[in-house]
């Protein structure tokens, strides 16, 4: 008899927990790879405009790619609402995405909208060079003006950048350098740069915070959070080095097999509006519908010429080369 | 005549016969069901990992293992991992023993605070220490700047320190438990007969503690090499197996190489598990007579006292400071860089759903785990069938299985029909149930050994069927074991990261994973605030559970007393 009461209470707690099992009326499960705080901004915007809740776990682009690849064709989400070009192109090729001709996206250029409507690019982002103002001053170093300057031995163990294995930003950094210098010279540059890199972070935005906190002097990082961190008062310097910067899109598409296709379509519709573009541009993204950019202002930064399709095809091979060069031997 | 009638009675009809059969064979039926569950949820995932490691897209191959042993990187990773495990285990055991000794044999005033303080880290995610170490000793850390230190925490030493701090409580808890159950009379007699404190510790306390220490060592070792939060955040470019496995599965979907790393990770754990079992067979000490009582504090010689106090003091101080730092960080814009007091981290409710999910998952896991735990222990102790010891071994092996391996196993095993569990909430709960089963089972076994089977037989002789006997006699006796299993599973499940990190899906995110992501990502304020919320909620839950179990125990003793009178 003893414990009967407690048992009853446990069961009660459990059944309540089960019953509270979320009145999941209009919930869309999504893999979403913007920075966590920007994820939340998008989720709140969509919720406000459509009443649809996007349930998301934060993951890097590379992690979303791994997840979708390993789950295919039984996806545990309804849509991808933010991934890099490699996955978007791969999903279209393999038929993992459901095309949707959204009326809200009419008039958007081909860079942001697939010609077969299999994917939607809600924003372009880039990578920039950031430095810690206070720490640089302490050391008496000037902020580098070009990528070549990063090879100077004085930066040894002072630079952080993301790992292209997990981060879409780093994937973009890698293919931008390979495009800038050509593949042979590009790998040589990356190898020389590797000597000064303290470590490769998992997420493309981590260097912004690590440098902002003064853990490291310099970082090659996604531009997504730079504006926000400056607003918060981090002692950050940022620059577009003279060789230019690369870019990639933030791709959205519906995953095959979803039971929530209509809700997903509503989400995509909202993302095609000027208002949504304004939200994203206010964070610092370059958007499908032109809007004033909070980070770059009126100046269009110098971009390195890129072939995203080629880069997506080459990604697995480049990953292997990367692992061979930078991970296989311990230094 | 009467005897024959009794035997014949239940066989009047088919239904009766089925009933009799079930009644008589219930233990075996139960055993079969439980074994099936263990096979599906514990053995099958491990086998899935094994198969994946030797089966590539083009069929069976050992190429992945070859790669592991040829590339220096992986080998280095293995060495680092083992070294980390050994150093950590030794340090945790020493510190844990000192603290446990002081909190059971030391001055009364110290006992309670020391115990509470040491148990604090148990209810926080283990990588809390990585967060506080970065704030204090990072390149731009508070203490680094204040003292002008030139020590880099990003590397092996940083990981070792963070992991040690994280697992001292576990070592402490297990050693303290054993110390509490030792009858102090033996030590006291030795003391009265003039033996020195050191001699008593060396010749009485430690030998009697050996099984407990061994078990603590096993657990700490396995947890250390599997829990990868600290290593992933502080490792820098120093490779360790667990974070590498995580990177391979989560970042690259390289399941084959990830499985190889998992199998490698499992080997030292299994070796130690069997070593531990082998060393313990026939070494069960029974202390002489009487109920264990709290040890009276006696004079401890300075020779013992001073080092014990120093070690415990340092550990206690560092743990307190670490928690303090995280607490302060959750109210600061950016601790050490921009020391403005803000409430934005605490008032950031993005983690609410994750915390809610964590509690829900842990409660479900604890409930199912505790029930399966006592049923298993009953079957193991009372059952008389072939394979009984195999069931016992499997159900206790959860101790020795690294969380990362179970996580990957579940991902591989339950990602496709017929049993598709990924993308739901049950997979999160079930992996915790079977990983942490061992504690409930052990508690149940030791409870059952305390009661004589004659009581159950008497009940059966008096005509009670199996269910009645089980419900009225076995269950009440085993209730403390149920509570032990429940509390342990709940506490461990809510902060554990290494397995569930592979299994969360949109809508079913967990607080531990969310905090890890935020910390790895650099959002220290948000990570700290969420940690504090989680710790607070776990403390509240523990108080509630404690209250419940005390109440039920109180009722039980009352009833027992009234019956005896």
Q: Would you kindly provide a brief summary of this structure?
A:
The complex is a heterodimer of chains A (331) and B (565). Chain A has twelve helices and ten strands. Chain A is an alpha/beta fold and 331 residues long.
Describe the structure.
The complex is a heterodimer of chains A (331) and B (565). Chain A is 42% helix and 18% strand. Chain A is α/β, with parallel strands linked by helices and 331 residues long. In chain A, strands 1, 2, 3, 4, 5, 6, 7, 8, 9 and 10 form a ten-stranded mixed sheet that branches. In chain A, strand 1, helix 2 and strand 2 form a beta-alpha-beta unit. In chain A, helix 4 packs across helix 12. The longest helix of chain A is centred in the last third of the chain and has 19 residues. In chain B, 75% of the residues lie in helices and 2% in strands. In chain B, the strands form two sheets. Chain B has a two-stranded antiparallel ribbon. Chain B has a two-stranded antiparallel ribbon with strand order 3-4. Chain B has 565 residues and is mainly alpha-helical. Chain B has 23 helices and four strands.
Quick tags:
heterodimer; A: 331 residues; alpha/beta; ten-stranded mixed beta sheet; 12 helices; 18% strand; B: 565 residues; mainly alpha; MetI-like fold; 2 domains; two-stranded antiparallel sheet; 23 helices; disordered N terminus
Topology of this structure?
The complex is a heterodimer of chains A (331) and B (565).
Chain A: H1 4-19, E1 27-32, H2 36-50, E2 53-58, H3 61-71, E3 79-83, H4 85-94, E4 97-98, E5 120-132, H5 133-139, E6 159-162, H6 168-181, H7 183-194, E7 197-201, H8 206-212, E8 218-222, H9 226-231, E9 236-239, E10 247-255, H10 261-271, H11 274-283, H12 308-326
Parallel strand pairs in A: 1-2, 1-3, 6-7, 6-8
Antiparallel strand pairs in A: 3-10, 4-10, 5-8, 5-9, 5-10
Helix pairs in contact in A: 4-12, 6-7
Chain B: H1 2-8, H2 14-54, E1 55-56, E2 59-60, H3 63-70, H4 72-105, H5 108-119, H6 128-137, H7 142-147, H8 156-181, H9 184-192, H10 197-226, H11 229-234, H12 241-252, H13 255-280, H14 302-329, E3 332-334, E4 338-341, H15 352-382, H16 388-396, H17 403-413, H18 426-435, H19 437-450, H20 453-461, H21 466-495, H22 511-521, H23 524-564
Antiparallel strand pairs in B: 1-2, 3-4
């Amino acid at each position: 008899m003893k414990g009967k009461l407690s048992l009853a209470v446990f069961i009660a707690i459990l059944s309540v927990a089960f019953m509270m099992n979320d009145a999941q009326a209009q919930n869309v499960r999504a893999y979403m790879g913007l920075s966590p705080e920007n994820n939340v901004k998008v989720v709140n915007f969509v919720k406000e405009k459509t009443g649809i809740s996007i349930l998301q776990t934060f993951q890097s682009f590379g992690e979303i790619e791994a997840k979708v690849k390993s789950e295919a064709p039984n996806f545990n989400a309804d849509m991808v609402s933010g991934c890099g070009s490699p996955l978007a192109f791969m999903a279209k090729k393999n038929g993992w995405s459901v095309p949707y001709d959204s009326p809200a996206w009419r008039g958007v250029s081909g860079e942001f909208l697939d010609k077969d409507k299999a994917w939607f690019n809600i924003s372009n982002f880039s990578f920039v060079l950031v430095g810690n103002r206070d720490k640089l001053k302490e050391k008496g170093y000037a902020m580098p003006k070009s990528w070549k300057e990063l090879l100077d031995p004085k930066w040894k163990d002072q630079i952080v950048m993301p790992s292209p294995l997990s981060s879409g930003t780093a994937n973009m950094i890698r293919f931008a350098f390979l495009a800038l210098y050509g593949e042979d010279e590009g790998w040589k540059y990356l190898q020389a740069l590797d000597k000064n890199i303290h470590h490769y972070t998992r997420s493309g935005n981590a260097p912004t915070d690590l440098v902002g906190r003064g853990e490291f002097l310099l970082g090659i990082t996604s531009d997504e959070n730079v504006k926000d961190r400056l607003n918060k008062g981090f002692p950050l310097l940022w620059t577009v080095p003279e060789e230019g910067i690369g870019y990639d899109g933030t791709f959205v598409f519906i995953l095959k097999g979803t039971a929530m296709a209509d809700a997903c379509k509503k989400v995509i519709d909202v993302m095609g509006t000027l208002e949504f573009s304004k939200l994203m541009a206010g964070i610092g993204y370059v958007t499908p519908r032109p809007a004033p950019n909070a980070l770059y202002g009126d100046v269009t930064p110098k971009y390195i010429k890129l072939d995203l399709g080629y880069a997506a095809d080459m990604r697995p091979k480049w990953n292997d080369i990367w692992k061979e060069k930078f991970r296989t031997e311990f230094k | 005549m009467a005897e024959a009638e009794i035997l014949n009675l239940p066989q009047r009809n088919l239904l009766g016969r089925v009933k009799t059969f079930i009644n008589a064979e219930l233990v075996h039926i139960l055993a079969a069901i439980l074994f099936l569950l263990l096979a599906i949820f514990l053995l099958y995932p491990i086998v899935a990992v094994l198969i994946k490691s030797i089966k590539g897209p083009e069929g069976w191959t050992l190429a992945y293992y070859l790669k592991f042993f040829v590339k220096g990187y992986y080998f280095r990773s293995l060495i680092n991992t083992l070294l980390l495990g050994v150093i950590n285990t030794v340090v945790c055991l020493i510190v844990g023993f000192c603290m446990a000794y002081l909190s059971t044999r030391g001055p009364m005033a110290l006992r309670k605070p020391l115990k509470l303080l040491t148990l604090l880290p148990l209810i926080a995610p283990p990588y809390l220490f990585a967060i506080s170490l970065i704030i204090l000793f990072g390149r731009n850390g508070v203490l680094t700047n204040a003292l002008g230190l030139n020590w880099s925490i990003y590397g092996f030493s940083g990981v070792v320190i963070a992991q040690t701090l994280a697992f001292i409580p576990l070592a402490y808890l297990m050693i303290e438990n054993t110390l509490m159950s030792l009858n102090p009379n033996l030590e006291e007699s030795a003391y009265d007969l003039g033996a020195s404190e050191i001699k008593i510790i060396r010749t009485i306390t430690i030998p009697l503690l050996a099984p407990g220490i061994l078990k603590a060592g096993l657990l700490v070792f396995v947890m250390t090499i599997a829990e990868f939060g600290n290593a992933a955040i502080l490792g820098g470019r120093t490779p360790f197996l667990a974070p590498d496995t995580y990177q391979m599965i989560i970042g690259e979907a390289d399941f084959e190489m990830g499985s190889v790393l998992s199998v490698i990770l499992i080997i030292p754990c299994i070796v130690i598990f069997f070593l531990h079992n082998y060393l313990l067979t026939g070494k069960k000490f029974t202390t002489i007579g009487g109920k264990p009582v709290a040890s009276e504090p006696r004079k401890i010689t300075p020779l013992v006292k001073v080092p014990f106090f120093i070690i415990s003091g340092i550990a206690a101080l560092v743990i307190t400071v670490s928690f303090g730092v995280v607490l302060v960080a959750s109210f600061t814009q950016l601790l050490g860089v921009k020391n403005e007091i803000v409430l934005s981290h605490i008032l950031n409710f993005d983690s609410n759903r994750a915390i809610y999910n964590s509690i829900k998952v842990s409660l479900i896991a604890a409930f199912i785990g505790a029930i399966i735990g006592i049923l298993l222990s009953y079957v193991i102790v009372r059952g008389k069938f072939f394979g009984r010891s195999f069931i016992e071994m499997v159900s206790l092996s959860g101790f020795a299985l690294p969380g990362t391996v179970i996580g990957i196993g579940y991902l591989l095993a339950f990602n496709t029909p017929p049993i598709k569990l990924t993308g739901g909430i049950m997979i999160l709960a079930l992996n915790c149930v079977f990983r942490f089963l061992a504690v409930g089972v052990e508690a149940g076994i030791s409870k059952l050994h305390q009661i004589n089977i004659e009581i159950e037989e008497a009940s059966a002789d008096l005509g009670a069927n199996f269910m009645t006997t089980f419900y009225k006699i076995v269950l009440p006796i085993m209730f403390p074991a149920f509570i032990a299993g429940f509390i342990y599973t709940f506490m461990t499940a809510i902060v554990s990261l290494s397995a569930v990190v592979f299994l969360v899906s949109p809508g079913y995110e967990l607080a531990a994973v969310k905090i890890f992501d935020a910390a790895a990502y650099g959002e220290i304020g948000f990570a700290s605030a969420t940690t504090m919320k989680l710790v607070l909620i776990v403390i509240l839950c523990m108080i509630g559970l404690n209250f419940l179990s005390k109440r039920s125990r109180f009722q039980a003793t009352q009833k027992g007393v009234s019956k005896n009178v």
